[in-house]
C-alpha cells in the first residue's frame, strides 16, 4: 500500500480556481465516496481550507493513484485534467507523508506556525473516518500527523509569538497587563484591522468590548459579532476613561485622540494604567499621549519590530520542527515498510509451502512401503530445504523494509516469484527471451 497526495494552494492557484475545487458539508461526503470508487484508491482524506485543497490517498500503485485523483478533481470541478496538472503539486511515498506532517505542523502555511491548520487536519481526517473512506494506513498516518502537530508546537513554541500586527497588538497588551479577563477594551474604527484585533481580544478573554466608528451602523455590526457594545463617535471621551486597552485604526487624515483630552482622562483613572495601540497610518493618536504618566502608547512601527522579531524566532523554531518531522517520518516509514512486506512474506512462504506439499505428495506416491518413521524423515527434509531456501530472502526483506527502498525490494520479490498479494499491485515485467545477448559472448 502506497501513499500519494495531489493538492493546490494559494501559491499554485488563484482564489477563483480554488473555489471550484473546494469541499465542505454534504459535498465533502459525496466527494469522498465518489473518490473511493476508483479501483486504485484504497483509502482517502480531503483537506479543504480557504488556502488549500489536498487529496491524500492510499493506493495500490502510485501513478494510477495520482491519475485517479486528478481525474476525480477534473470531473468534480469541471476543470480540464491538463489544467489540473498545471495548478497542482503531487507527492508520493516519503514525500507525501512528509508533506502531511509539515502541513499539520504549520510549516507549509501562509502564516508560518499557524495553529488553525492542525484543527483543520484533524477535522478532515475525522470526517473521512466517519464516512468510511479511510483505511488502516490512512488512519495511522493522520493520527501520527496530528500528534506531530501537537509535539512541534509544544517543543518548539512555533505558534507562541505573534506575527500579525493585530495579534501582536493584543499580545503586547497582555505582556503589560497580564490576564485580560478583568480588562475592558475600546476599539476605534470598524475596518478589517479593528475586526482582527477585536477577535484576538475576545479569544484572550477580555471582559468587554466597546466599538466606536464614525459610521454607527458599522460599529454596531462589529460589536454584535463580538458580543460587545457600539457607541457614537462623539462619546469617545466618556469611554476612554473606563477603557484599559484602546486600539485605534481609522482612515481619518488627522489625529482623533489628542494629548490634552487624554491628560484630563488620566486624572480620573486614579493610577490605573492604560494601553493605547495606534494601528492607523496616518496616526490616530498624538505622540504626546505616550509621554503622559500612566499611558503606554505603541504605533505600527513598534508592532512591526515585534512582528519581525517574532517571525525570526518562528523561523528558528521551524528548523527544530523540521528535525522532529524527519525523526517521526523515519519511524512511520519503518512501520509502513513492515506493513508492506508482511503480506509479501506470507505469500512467499505460501508459495514455498505449495511446492513442498505437491512434491512431497508425488514423491511419497512413488516410494513404496515407507515406514511412518521414514515418511517423517522425508517430510522433515522437505521442510528444512524450503525453510533454508526462504530464510535469507525473508530476513533480507525484513531488513530492507526499514529503509527508503523497502517497497522497491518488495515489488522485485513479488515480480521474481510471481506472487499475488491482495491489496498490492506491482508492475510485472516479463523478460524477452529473444533479446540479443549484449555480453559479447557467442
From TrEMBL:
Residues 171-306 form the Quinate/shikimate 5-dehydrogenase/glutamyl-tRNA reductase domain. It holds the Pfam family GlutR_N. Its EC number is 1.2.1.70. Residues 320-419 form the Tetrapyrrole biosynthesis glutamyl-tRNA reductase dimerisation domain. Belongs to the glutamyl-tRNA reductase family. This is Glutamyl-tRNA reductase. Homodimer. InterPro entries: 4pyrrol_synth_GluRdtase, 4pyrrol_synth_GluRdtase_dimer, 4pyrrol_synth_GluRdtase_N, GluRdtase_CS, GluRdtase_dimer_dom_sf, GluRdtase_N_sf, NAD(P)-bd_dom_sf, Shikm_DH/Glu-tRNA_Rdtase.
Amino acid at each position: 500500500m502506497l501513499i500519494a497526495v495531489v493538492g493546490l494552494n494559494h501559491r499554485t492557484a488563484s482564489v477563483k480556481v480554488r473555489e471550484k475545487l473546494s469541499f465542505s458539508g454534504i459535498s465533502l461526503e459525496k466527494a469522498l465516496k465518489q473518490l473511493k470508487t476508483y479501483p486504485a484508491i484504497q483509502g482517502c482524506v480531503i483537506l479543504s481550507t480557504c488556502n488549500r485543497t489536498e487529496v491524500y490517498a492510499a493506493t495500490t500503485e502510485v501513478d494510477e493513484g495520482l491519475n485517479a485523483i486528478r481525474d476525480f478533481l477534473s470531473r468534480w470541478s469541471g476543470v480540464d485534467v491538463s489544467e489540473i496538472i498545471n495548478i497542482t503539486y503531487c507527492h508520493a511515498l516519503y514525500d507525501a507523508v512528509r508533506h502531511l506532517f509539515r502541513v499539520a505542523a504549520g510549516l507549509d502555511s501562509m502564516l508560518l506556525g499557524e495553529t488553525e491548520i492542525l484543527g483543520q487536519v484533524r477535522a478532515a481526517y475525522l470526517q473521512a473516518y466517519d464516512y468510511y473512506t479511510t483505511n488502516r494506513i490512512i488512519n495511522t498516518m493522520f493520527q501520527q500527523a496530528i500528534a506531530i502537530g501537537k509535539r512541534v508546537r509544544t517543543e518548539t513554541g512555533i505558534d507562541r509569538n505573534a506575527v500579525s500586527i493585530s495579534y501582536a497588538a493584543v499580545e503586547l497588551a497582555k505582556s503589560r497587563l497580564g490576564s485580560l479577563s478583568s480588562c475592558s477594551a475600546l476599539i476605534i474604527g470598524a475596518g478589517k484591522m479593528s475586526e482582527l484585533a477585536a477577535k484576538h481580544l475576545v479569544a484572550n478573554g477580555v471582559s468587554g468590548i466597546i466599538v466606536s466608528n464614525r459610521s454607527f451602523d458599522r460599529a454596531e455590526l462589529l460589536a454584535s459579532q463580538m458580543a460587545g457594545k457600539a457607541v457614537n463617535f462623539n462619546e469617545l471621551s466618556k469611554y476612554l476613561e473606563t477603557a484599559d486597552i484602546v486600539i485605534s485604526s481609522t482612515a481619518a487624515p488627522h489625529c482623533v485622540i489628542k494629548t490634552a483630552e487624554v491628560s484630563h482622562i488620566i486624572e480620573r483613572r486614579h493610577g490605573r494604567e492604560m494601553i493605547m495601540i495606534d494601528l492607523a497610518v496616518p496616526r490616530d493618536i498624538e505622540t504626546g499621549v505616550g509621554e503622559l504618566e500612566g499611558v503606554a502608547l505603541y504605533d505600527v512601527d513598534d508592532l512591526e519590530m515585534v512582528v519581525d522579531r517574532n517571525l525570526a524566532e518562528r523561523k528558528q523554531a521551524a528548523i527544530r520542527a523540521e528535525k522532529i518531522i524527519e525523526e517521526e517520518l523515519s519511524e512511520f516509514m519503518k512501520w509502513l515498510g513492515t506493513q508492506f512486506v508482511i503480506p509479501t512474506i506470507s505469500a512467499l512462504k505460501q508459495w514455498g509451502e505449495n511446492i513442498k506439499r505437491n512434491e512431497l505428495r508425488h514423491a511419497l506416491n512413488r516410494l513404496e512401503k515407507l515406514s511412518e518413521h521414514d515418511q517423517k524423515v522425508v517430510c522433515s527434509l522437505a521442510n528444512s530445504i524450503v525453510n533454508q531456501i526462504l530464510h535469507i530472502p525473508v530476513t533480507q526483506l525484513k531488513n530492507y523494509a526499514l529503509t527508503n527502498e523497502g517497497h522497491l525490494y518488495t515489488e522485485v520479490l513479488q515480480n521474481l516469484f510471481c506472487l499475488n498479494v491482495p491489496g498490492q499491485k506491482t508492475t510485472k515485467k516479463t523478460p524477452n527471451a529473444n533479446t540479443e545477448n549484449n555480453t559479447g559472448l557467442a
